[in-house]
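Hi R.,

Here's the chain you asked about this morning:
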Amino acid sequence: MPRIVPAALWACAFLFLAPRPEAAAGTAEPAIRAQLTARRSAVISAEVSSRVRQLPLQEGARFAAGELLVAFDDSLQRAQMERAQAVLNAAQRTFAANQRLFALKSIGQIELDLSEAELAKARAELSYA
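And here is the predicted structure, written out as tokens:
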């Protein structure tokens, strides 16, 4: 019983077996066409939105593991970190002062607890910044 070969397979066989124009023109080497794919690839993304400050490599350039691929402008993040550090320093001083005042019975427990909570909040904000 004869087998029926789909038309797409016939088209592929025709393209593969058809004479190349380069060979007909008398060139010694026939042209070889191929599609290349990289063995390894990576997707680069950032969790922050920021302006790109530096792109040291050109598209398609080789690079080694750990090499800088892109540098972002981090001035906003640095300012947020400095602000969080300043808030933490102020909260630490306030809590230390309130501990001394509490020992002298100049403030109540609630004021001491509030300053301790502010200190914990400032530590959390610094770790997030």
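One quick note: The mean pLDDT is 80.

Cheers,
M.
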